[in-house]
Amino acid sequence: MRDVEGHTQAQRRLAQAAASGQIAHAYLLTGPDGIGKTTLALAFARLLLCERPGMQSGDACGDCAPCRKIAHGTHPDVRQVELEEGKRLLGIDAIRETVIRLANLAPSEGSCRIFILRTVESMTPATVNALLKTLEEPPPGVIFLLTSADVEHVLPTVLSRCQIIAMRAFTAHEIAAALQRRWGVGADEARALAAVANGRLGWAVRAHEQPQLREAQADQLERIRRLTAAPRDERIRAAGALAADADSARQALELWMQWWRDVTLAANGAAHLASEGEARRHAERLGHELGPEAARAFMQALLAAQEALDQNANPRLTLEVLLLDLPTVSTGNAVR
Asked: What is the residue range of 277's domain?
């Protein structure tokens, strides 16, 4: 599975299943967004459909017609199902048309049909119920590869029908090393991207290829940092801008938590922070001014807000409450 960075244990488990022929009908790949779950699923699909697979190495040849078609997303027996842009839930129609109907047809070219269902936790209960019979007793030659960023929000009826393969976030060192080795990124840029990637190699690669992603992240972090000195009415307005929808609110919270971790570390006297430049200097100043107890208390508030969003709380109200709990630092650096 040469296209997959890291995740040695997960790769080995899938490669051994392919080599032995003991392939489960459904796997659930779990772990944070941007760490390579879909990349691993596609690599496994190539291994299963490759005309000249290296079963000992766990690698598809990469050159045969099936490998090339999967790489280009044109293989008729490999279907990816994911959320439509702008939607938060995966509806029943997509599952009925793209999965259930096709699962009952013989493979078009290969030895099996493979369905890659991304963010399976976004399925509605009705969608899950429509899929369950096919997932539990799929026709011969049908394999499901499901992915989830949060296994706790996957319905038990789905979990019980899958073999679970846990994947972890990358360390900053692993991301920096991979960026330099595989994508030819310079050492300084690789370290800078790794520091703000929050364990997501996929995001770091995209940010290298699309610098505007990192610029947008830096701009949003700057807005978040300034809120510690903002009056209440400005904070309320900021909540509306940060929480245009649930996904925007989650992204803001993720970035906020990453930076506030540095604030909390600085409050406890740590010197090794992930932030750089003005963001780092602000985290150090704020941490020293707040002290360990206040910094830790707001980190708990951030975690509570994230949990509330996971339970479908109103994004704007959630962030308004959070921002009113944010410790206030005046321009004279006195904490209020």
From this structure: 212-325
Contact 107, 140 (CB under 8 A): no
Unique residue bearing structure tokens 């997960």: 10
Taking residues 185-206, what's their average pLDDT? Answer: 90
C-alpha distances out from residue 116 to 43, 77, 148, 273, Å: 11, 11, 11, 37
Predicted confidence (pLDDT) at residue 307 exceeds the cutoff of 60 = yes
Partners of 79 in the β-ladder: 115
pLDDT value of residue 44: 96
How confident is the prediction for the chain on average, in pLDDT? 88
Give the mean model confidence (pLDDT) for residues 152-161.
87
- Asked if pLDDT for residue 70 goes beyond 60, the answer is yes
Paired sense of beta strands 113-117 and 78-81, if any:
parallel
Q: Which amino acid is at 83?
A: L
Among candidates 86, 169, 77, 161, which has minimal Cα distance to 115?
Answer: 77
How high is the pLDDT of residue 331? Answer: 47
The candidate with the shortest Cα–Cα distance to 198, out of 221, 219, 178, 175, is 175
Which two structure tokens, joined as six digits, stand for 91?
A: 């509806």
Total number of domains constituting the chain: 3
Residue 57 CB-half CA count within 13 A: 10
336 within a domain of the structure (yes/no): no
* CA separation for the pair 317, 112 (Å, rounded): 48
